[in-house]
Design a protein that fits this description.
Blueprint (H helix, E strand, L loop, with lengths): L10 H12 L2 E6 L5 E3 L2 E2 L6 H7 L7 E4 L7 E5 L4 H7 L4 H7 L5 E4 L4 H9 L5 E3 L6 H18 L9 E2 L2 H9 L3 H24 L6 H14 L4 E2 L4 E4 L20 E6 L1 E3 L2 E2 L2 E6 L6 H20 L7 H17 L7 H6 L26 E2 L1 E5 L7 E4 L2 E4 L12 E4 L2 E4 L3
The structure holds glycine and manganese (II) ion (2 copies).
The site of glycine (GLY) has 7 residues, from loops.
Length: 418
């Protein structure tokens, strides 16, 4: 199957690049925690992407300290080996494993306050701290208290203020440009997802429930080696297609309806994001075909505009132009195209954007602007993005009655190459 095709991720090289950006700072990254679903049952765990990007550690309750000024530059704090806990929850890499396998310079148990001591020791060698505030109030308070303590200890030495920055600031631009190994994983995720969409098209028929098609999709994901979904699968029939993030997937599909599926497999921490819309009974009605053809035209045109050196915003601008022209032809909009675009007349039918970065997260890391929100950044080789125009005529929409209940989105994933 697919797994053998992807070269290994070079976590050490990622850390080396991170240390360069870190300069005289010290960074404390906190891994994801388990979320209780009920009693002793947790929601499925997935490591936080920045944390995994730098460490390759995939268990809950971990911290990583990066301190270029210390002897141990990369320290990991992980759940220690524990026979009883491992019997219930599974294998733990443990403190030794963190050193030997993940190449930490030093490793400790995350059950103790060792991470606080290590941070306190690292601070005098640093001029700022990178730590993401606002995710865990208890941890924030501990860090603030610790900074006060360090301030009292070190102010006479001239070092007593450590501005707090977000480590994501250092990582997001690196994550935006994908390496060969990352592209390989994204291609696997995309291949698996495309196969799942084709299987769903083959399986879908009137009388089936949305969840049955979801089962086909997610069966293919897992059967092909995907680790999980990159986001909850949207399997939306009829007017449900007009709910952008619908994922209840409980409705029975009827003859002459469209089925919109937005589903992407995650493979080794990289996800695809694909949408297809097709007629449940195999043939489009005239109205469905009109809407579908217009969305497809917009998508093809927008994909042509996705190339290095062009503004990221050009993807959405292209979609808006094609859709506005098309909506005029379909007699949904009336008036000069320029005025309609300036007034955002398309908004009731096309309420979202046409693209976002794609990678470890479905809405991946990286800025969309240069300095100001008015200044779109330029696309460049190595970026991966989606192109996803759509048109939605919800039950409440003001559009012509003949389009009511029709929702179409088409989404593909694009790798920008030279
Ligand atoms: N599946 C979420 C999105 O398309 O952005
Ligand atoms: Mn998307
Ligand atoms: Mn999507």
């Amino acid at each position: 199957m697919y797994p053998k095709e992807s070269p290994p991720i070079d976590f050490a090289a990622r850390r080396a690049a991170f240390f360069k950006k870190l300069g005289g700072g010290v960074a404390l990254l906190v891994g994801a925690d388990l979320q209780t679903r009920n009693d002793d049952v947790d929601f499925p765990f997935r490591q936080e992407s920045d944390f995994y990007f730098l460490t390759g550690f995939a268990e809950p309750k971990a911290l990583a300290l990066f301190s270029p000024g210390s002897k141990a530059k990369f320290q990991l704090f992980v759940p220690p080996k524990d026979k009883e806990r491992e019997l219930w929850d599974g294998y733990r890499l443990g403190v030794q494993g963190a050193k030997q396998i993940l190449k930490a310079d030093a490793a400790f148990s995350s059950d103790t306050d060792d991470w606080e001591k290590a941070l306190l020791e690292a601070l005098p060698h640093a001029d700022r701290i990178y730590y993401r505030v606002g995710r865990n109030a208890d941890r924030d308070r501990r860090i603030f208290t610790l900074l006060e303590k360090a301030k009292r200890q070190h102010w006479k030495g001239g070092r007593w203020l450590w501005p707090i920055h977000d480590p994501h600031e250092l990582l997001s631009e690196t994550r935006l440009v994908k390496s060969k190994a990352e592209i390989a994983r994204l291609q696997i995720a995309a291949k698996i997802s495309a196969e799942a969409h084709v299987n769903a098209m083959r399986a879908a028929k009137p009388g089936m429930f949305e969840y049955e098609v979801q089962a086909v999709i997610e069966h293919t994901f897992r059967a092909r080696g995907a680790w999980r979904v990159g986001y909850e699968s949207i399997v939306a029939s009829g007017h449900n297609a007009c709910i952008l993030h619908y994922n209840t997937n409980q409705r029975k599909m009827e003859r002459n309806e469209l089925l919109l599926i937005d589903a992407g497999a995650e493979y080794d921490y990289y996800t695809a994001d694909i949408t297809r819309t097709f007629p449940v009974s195999g043939t489009f009605t005239k109205e469905q075909a009109e809407v579908y053809d217009l969305v497809l035209e917009a998508q093809k045109e927008a994909i042509r505009s996705a190339r290095p050196g062009k503004k990221f915003s050009e993807i959405n601008d292209t979609v808006i132009e094609v859709l506005t022209e098309g909506l005029k032809k379909l007699k949904v909009l009336k008036g000069p195209t320029k005025t309609l675009i300036a007034k955002k007349a398309y908004r009731p039918y096309y309420p979202h954007g046409a693209s976002h970065w794609l990678g470890m997260d479905v809405h991946d890391a990286g800025r969309y602007y240069d300095q100001s929100p008015e200044k779109s950044r330029l696309m460049a080789a190595g970026q991966v993005l989606t192109v996803e125009p759509g048109l939605y005529f919800g039950a409440e929409s003001d559009g012509p009655a003949r389009f009511k209940g029709i929702g179409v989105r088409i989404e593909d994933d694009v790798w920008i190459t030279p």
